[in-house]
Description:
4-stranded mixed β-sheet; single chain
Amino acid sequence: MAVRGRTAFLLAFLIGVGSPRFALAQSTPPPSQVPGSVLVHIESTEAVDLERETGDRHDPFDVVCTSPCDEWVPATGRYRIAGSGIRGSRRFELLANAGRETVVVSRASSTAFGIGIAAIAVGAAAIAIGSLGAVANAFSDDPNGSSGNGPVNLALGVVVVGLAVEAGGIALVVLNASSRVHQTTAFAPSAEFSSALFPPDVAHRGAPIPGYASAPSWPLLRLTF
C-alpha cells in the first residue's frame, strides 16, 4: 500500500508540474529567432547578394547577406538580388511576416546583356548598310544597258545577316534584362545550415526539434508525459 501511495503521488506531481512546463516549452520560439524578422534561405547556382532598400539616394541598397544566406533579416522593407556579373532583380517584399522563406534565383548575366546590346547595334548597322546598297544598285544605270544581280544579292545578304544578328541580340537582352526571383515559404536549408541546426550527435530519428523541450520523464517508472 505504501508503494502504491508513493507511485500515485509521483504521478500526480508529474502531471501537475511537468505538463505546464511542456506546454510552455512548446510555445517558446527558437532561441536564435529575432522578433520581426524572417529566416531567409537563398537557392542560386552561383553566389548572389540579398540587398535591402535603404531609402538613401546616394546609397540606395545595403547588402544584408550572401547566398545561401540562412540568416534572420527584417520582415519589412523592399529587397532585391544583385551581385558580381549579374543583372539585379526587381524589388520585392518578403512573403512571410515571420518564420522562414526560401528565395530561388534565376541569374541574368550582365555579360550576355552587354553582348545583346552590341549585337543589336551591329545588326542595325548591317541592315542599314545592306538596305542602302540594295537601293543604290536598284537605281544605278548600267552604261552597257544591263545590270548584274551580284551586288543586289550581296546587299540583300547583308540585310539578312543583320536581321539575324539583331534578333539574337534582342533575345539576349530580353532573357537577361533582370534576374528572376521565385519566393516560397517552404524552407530548404543548405547542408551547412542543416548541420548547424542538427549536429551529428542528435541528427537521428526521434531527436528533439530545436526550440522544443523534451517531455519530462521518470526513468524508474518508464512513463513519459
